[in-house]
Amino acid sequence: MTALELTIPDTSAMEELGIRLAAHLRAGDLIQLDGELGAGKTTLTRGIGEGLRVRGAVTSPTFVLARTHPTAVGVPLVHVDAYRLSSALELDDLDIDWAGSITVVEWGAGKLDGVSDSWLRIAIERRTGAAADAALRPGDEVDADEEPRHVVIEGIGPRWADLPPLD
């Protein structure tokens, strides 16, 4: 397993990270996104969608559980919100074409067993208080929605034995 740690200063930079990540994705890739509500999971996915040139807007699939977005690169982006799912079996019931899609699963911890032998696990931590202050320069002002995020990207399995440069 390899890991990369980044400090992402704002939502624009989170989308840019998604765009950079998209350049390395191909059919069959699976990304697990973890982080509290408001951490930036959907913002990162929006950037991935922009990098893949999806048709339409990438929005949270909270109420529909999964959305498939056609892309200009020919491989669909499947965006899943697994928050309300209790197991990998319920995820399997969504009938996702894992091999033919690039799949991003929000709240996927513990629910991806058996789906793939390789995936990216991306943990996003919203930094507040002293942790946020440490990432700022003197004089910086921060909107509550624009607080820095600490992002850890872990490559799991043979596909991600070497993480691409994303910083």
UniProtKB/TrEMBL annotation:
<keyword id="KW-0963">Cytoplasm</keyword>
<comment type="function">
    <text>Required for the formation of a threonylcarbamoyl group on adenosine at position 37 (t(6)A37) in tRNAs that read codons beginning with adenine. Is involved in the transfer of the threonylcarbamoyl moiety of threonylcarbamoyl-AMP (TC-AMP) to the N6 group of A37, together with TsaD and TsaB. TsaE seems to play an indirect role in the t(6)A biosynthesis pathway, possibly in regulating the core enzymatic function of TsaD.</text>
</comment>
<protein>
    <recommendedName>
        <fullName>tRNA threonylcarbamoyladenosine biosynthesis protein TsaE</fullName>
    </recommendedName>
</protein>
<dbReference type="Pfam" id="PF02367">
    <property type="entry name" value="TsaE"/>
</dbReference>
<keyword id="KW-0460">Magnesium</keyword>
<dbReference type="InterPro" id="IPR027417">
    <property type="entry name" value="P-loop_NTPase"/>
</dbReference>
<keyword id="KW-0067">ATP-binding</keyword>
<keyword id="KW-0819">tRNA processing</keyword>
<keyword id="KW-0479">Metal-binding</keyword>
<dbReference type="GO" id="GO:0046872">
    <property type="term" value="F:metal ion binding"/>
</dbReference>
<dbReference type="InterPro" id="IPR003442">
    <property type="entry name" value="T6A_TsaE"/>
</dbReference>
<dbReference type="GO" id="GO:0005737">
    <property type="term" value="C:cytoplasm"/>
</dbReference>
<dbReference type="GO" id="GO:0005524">
    <property type="term" value="F:ATP binding"/>
</dbReference>
<comment type="similarity">
    <text>Belongs to the TsaE family.</text>
</comment>
<keyword id="KW-0547">Nucleotide-binding</keyword>
<dbReference type="GO" id="GO:0002949">
    <property type="term" value="P:tRNA threonylcarbamoyladenosine modification"/>
</dbReference>
